[in-house]
Structures are given as structure tokens and as C-alpha cells.
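Allow me, if you will, to draw on your knowledge of protein folds for a short while. I have a record of one protein: its chain in single-letter code and its fold written as C-alpha cells. I should value your view on which stretches of the chain appear to form regular backbone elements. Thank you for your consideration; the sequence and its C-alpha cells are set out here:
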Amino acid sequence: MKLYYWPRTRAFTSLWMMEEVGEPYEIVRVDIRAADHPSAAYKQINPIGKLAGFQDGACAMGETAAILLYVADKFPNKRLAPAPTDPRRGRFLQWLMFPATTMEPVMVEKRAGTRPNTVQSGWGDYDRAMSALEAAMQPGPWLLGHEFTAADLYVASALHYGMLFGMIDRRAPFTAFTERATGRPAFQRASAIEARETQSAFPGS
């Protein structure tokens, strides 16, 4: 498995997932500052040229949720996704897609001060989205109860950066949820890799 990656990008979420799974993989650095980025070769991995990208033999893809789902399903023994026949699968998929389809749009609107169109926008608005997410965290500790999944990983990653940059309110359930997730050993390993890669890509940072 190959993870196409550059530090300080959304690829960190996929990096965290690879560390959570704990199976062998290769980091392929994609310098997003390069004049020829995205190259034609990289667009064969991720057609829009964004990070992360992922490749497993003849299978290639972009989109964080797709990467997380593929990896979770490839290693069912890691229990990072309910089986397709599990009744919880639908709710798992909803929250796995939530960061990209709902959290990011409302975060961008909040940051830009854009007036939301809660009826026509598929993501509703910031208050609707965050209230739904906060309710889903009860009773916890994870979105599906006691079992941590790839959906928790993605939501926690989005919350972590959203709160860090002031695009998400620091509600007590959000901070508690994020602290639980970022306290996991896999997050700590991914953070160490990110720090090392950042130092290499941005010397003196």
C-alpha cells in the first residue's frame, strides 16, 4: 500500500488511519509546491490532484473517506468499520462522510461569514450540523458506542483542526471526544511522522 502524502495537508488523516491499521505501507511524498504539481502521473492516482492519494496494487484513489473505508474494509480484523451486513453500517457510513460533506462546508461558511441557505444547501448550516454531531456523541465514548471506528478518526481529525483554527466552537463534548481520539497511540505515531516530515519539507520550521 502506498500513501501519497505531504505534511501540513489533509493527508494527515489518512496517515493516522494507516498507523491505526498497523499494516506495512509506503509514504510517497508529493511536493505540492512543485511547479509541475499535479503531474499527469499523480492525476492517475487522484484525478483532481489533491492529497491524500492512495494506491494498493491496481487500485488507486483520492478522497479521504474513500481511503479510510477501503483500508478499514481491507483489514476487517482491525474492527475499524462494521461489516456490510451489520445494522450499524449505515450510521457508520453517514458519520464517515460527514466531515467532507457537511463539516468542511459549514466551517468554510463560518470562517468566511457567509450567510447559509439552510434549506437549499445539502449541509444545512453550522448550527444544524454541529448540534447533530454533538447529539451523536451521546452516550459515547464513540459515535457507535464503545467501538472506535474510522468514522471517529475522521470526525476527530476534522474537529481537531477546526477547533485549532477557530472554525469550530470548543464545545465540551467536542474537546472531550477529540482528546480521547488524539490520545490513541496511532495518532501519536502519526504525529511523530508528521513532525519528521515537516522538518524535512520545511527546514527550520
